[in-house]
Amino acid sequence: MNSRGLDYTILTIAIIGAINWGLIGFFRLDLVAFLFGNMTLLSRVIYGIVGICGLYLVSMFGRVRDIAD
Predict the structure, then answer these.
(1) Whole-angstrom Cα distance, residue 29 to residue 55?
(2) How many CB atoms sit inside 10 A of residue 52's CB?
(3) Distance of alpha carbon 69 from alpha carbon 65, whole angstroms
(4) Residue-wise pLDDT tens digits, 2-60
(5) Any idea what DSSP says for residue 63?
(6) 28-to-11, 18, 24, 34, 68 alpha-carbon distances in Å
(7) Fewest CB atoms within 10 Å of the CB: 12, 21, 38, 69?
(8) 19 class by beta-carbon count within 10 Å (0-12 exposed, 13-18 middle, 19+ buried)
(9) At CB < 8 A and 24+ separation, what contacts does 9-18 make?
(10) Quick check: 37 and 43 in contact, CB under 8 A?
(11) C-beta separation of 17 from 50 below 8 A
């Protein structure tokens, strides 16, 4: 099964989440909270999606290693 499109979509979402964490760390600016409100339902859904994407990317470690072999 080819999941390349899903992998790129999830990787993009995780990168956006990482950028948000960088903004929080360097400038104390939570972009999600700024755009969608502090812990509103929508912002919590966005945080949840980013977290799920990060967990999914853990599975890429095994797949990338299998491709390299």
Answers:
(1) 24
(2) 13
(3) 6
(4) 778 888 999 999 999 999 999 999 999 999 999 999 999 999 999 999 999 999 999 88
(5) H
(6) 24, 14, 4, 11, 39
(7) 69
(8) exposed
(9) 10/53, 10/56, 10/57, 11/53, 11/57, 13/49, 13/50, 13/53, 14/50, 14/53, 14/54, 14/57, 16/50, 17/50, 17/51, 17/53, 17/54
(10) yes
(11) yes
Q: Which amino acid is at 65?
A: R
CB atoms within 10 A of CB 14: 19
Q: Would you put residue 41 in left (φ > 0), alpha (ψ -120 to 50) or beta?
A: alpha
Query: 0.85 exceeded by the pTM?
Result: no
